[in-house]
Amino acid sequence: MNEKPKTVYDDVKSNGHSRRDFLKFCSMMAAFMGIKSSGVGQVVEALETKPRIPIIWLHGQECTGCSESFIRSSHPIVADIILDKISLDYTETLMAASGHQAEASLKQTMEKYKGEYLLIVEGATTVGDGGVYCCIGGKTFENRLKEAAEGAKAIIAWGNCASAGGVQKANPNPTGAKAVHEIISGKPIINVQGCPPIAEVMAGVVVHLLVFERIPQLDAHGRPKAFYSRRVHDTCYRRPNFDAGLFVESFDDENAKRGYCLYKLGCKGPVTYNTCGVIKWNNGVSFPIQSGHPCIGCSEANFWDNGPFYQHLSQFPGFGIETTADKIGVGLGVATGVGIAAHAVTTNIRKRKLIQKSKKDDDDDS
Amino acid sequence: MEETVHKSPIKIKYIWELPVRFYHWLNALSIVVLCITGYIIGDPFAIQKGTEAYMNYWFGTVRFVHFAAGYIFFFNFVFRLYWGFVGNKYSRWYNYVPLKKAQWVEIWDVIKTDILQIKCKPIHSLGHNALADITYFFTFIAFVLQSLTGFGIYAAMSNSWFPKLFSWFVPLVGGDLAARQIHHILMWFFIIFAIIHVYLVFYHDYIERRGVTSSMIGGWKFVESEEEGEC
């Protein structure tokens, strides 16, 4: 730990990668981040000269799917860059140390790199019943998070659980799950959304922090704009079918095979911001819509509570599972019609009196 | 009960100025178009042509009509807000905001006379009655919400600067899906409002014989100078 801090390039070399591999990785990252080609040099220079960022990676109430996604990234250096090279100083699921040694390592990192380390959080924080639902090393996760956030340079919330509470926060939220930004304030928090996020996006955010030493541009939900500024719908290869009004009506539909738009099967692409249609998954092989499944909107907050996955109109709040706004609307429309009919009857009784009175007056006049 | 229906002299009053009438009909037209196209966008027809996407564009056209009508609806509404400050006393903003006690008294009177039909005192207001005014106040709120959610979700698919002015609203309600839900539910408010609105215009013309229906065409209302005691 006392030697001169290594750069990412030093580590890449010592791990047996060629300079060519390294440059390929740099260009790939620059492309993902939306940096113009002349900026690739800046990425290369940063990774060659800047010391690695110390990282503390905390796991809260979660399925570790974000880590799984990350270690399956397309380019070997993407995974290496964090797991081996950017000195991952503490992470419960992947570190060799355990028990007291692990806790000591965490404490040491927090003290040694105070104000410099990057805190990565995976999973929701549970505050219900005093936080008993997620305790590590004898402390509640909420306390551990606050302690680690204290000296962090920036916080990255990995995935939907850390960014928005995820499935744990879905109604009725028995454990009182909360997102990182609901617990921590006063620190820059980057929400890398998705369930899980795409590995290249995760790496892209870390590389951005390393290269530019500032947080990337974020949208209103705290997501990096480079990856979350466009709707899945707008980058979907099935979009022409949407504009043409060609929709799949059911999963066993002939048109499902033809690749028609999945809008009527509840595709949340039109309301979901992510880069699935561009970077795709598993080395760019496919993404849910390409595999014939509607988007479930996993990079949006509360997507679990936003109605059934296979129904486009979600249910009307407070009216049971199968009741959509349209059913309520038609019901109200019928009720209005009945009310109007009843009102028209009494109005006619009134009018008859008026007509009779008018006739009587005419008779009196003549 | 001495006076007759015909004997009292009838005065002709100019109530709705041309800009108000123009606003009304443009608004009605755009709302009809918006509701029809909006419903289709929410639940498109199953047209199984078995063709390739490049040969069709009907859904894109429906969406275009919806967005274009949305612009017309919004700027027409902005114009009406402006007219609420410069128009005649029947179209001024203070009619719609129930701040005075007299307005609330009249609201209750209208409910008893026209809705429940348990009271026989005619309402003397020349423009809208107070209940209609407060209802229009609610529709104005619905107009604002519909514009905020509509342009808010439209912002993501437009390069124009104008819809971007509304994009701040979407995160406030929790994201695009929630904004879309609100937009969809409010569509039903417009549909049900239109049903009741048209019925009540017919009702008032039918029972009060003041020419309410044609007043929105020519602007005139026919008012009996001594309206008393008829029900």
Gross geometry of chain B: elongated
Sheet with most strands: strand arrangement of chain A: 2-1-3-7-9
Estimate what percentage of residues of chain B fall within beta strands: under 5%
Q: Mind telling me the CATH superfamily name of the largest domain in chain A?
A: NADH:ubiquinone oxidoreductase-like, 20kDa subunit
Task: Explain what the structure shows.
The complex is a heterodimer of chains A (366) and B (231). By secondary structure, chain A is of the alpha/beta class. Chain A has helices at 8-14, 19-33, 40-49, 65-71, 76-85, 99-112, 141-150, 159-164, 180-183, 199-212, 225-228, 239-243, 254-258, 325-365; strands spanning 55-59, 88-91, 118-122, 125-126, 135-136, 139-140, 154-158, 177-178, 189-192. In chain A, strand 5 (135-136) and strand 6 (139-140) form a beta hairpin. The radius of gyration of chain A is 29 Å and the shape is elongated. Chain B is elongated. The longest helix of chain B is centred in the last third of the chain and has 33 residues, at 176-208. Chain B is built from eight helices and two strands. In chain B, helix 3 (101-115) packs across helix 4 (130-154). At the A-B interface, helix 12, helix 13 and helix 14 of A face helix 2 and helix 7 of B.
SSE topology sketch:
The complex is a heterodimer of chains A (366) and B (231).
Chain A: H1 8-14, H2 19-33, H3 40-49, E1 55-59, H4 65-71, H5 76-85, E2 88-91, H6 99-112, E3 118-122, E4 125-126, E5 135-136, E6 139-140, H7 141-150, E7 154-158, H8 159-164, E8 177-178, H9 180-183, E9 189-192, H10 199-212, H11 225-228, H12 239-243, H13 254-258, H14 325-365
Parallel strand pairs in A: 1-2, 1-3, 3-7, 7-9
Antiparallel strand pairs in A: 4-8, 5-6
Helix pairs in contact in A: 2-3, 2-10, 3-10, 4-10, 5-10
Chain B: E1 10-14, H1 18-42, H2 58-86, H3 101-115, H4 130-154, H5 161-164, H6 169-173, H7 176-208, H8 212-218, E2 220-224
Antiparallel strand pairs in B: 1-2
Helix pairs in contact in B: 1-2, 1-7, 2-4, 3-4, 4-7
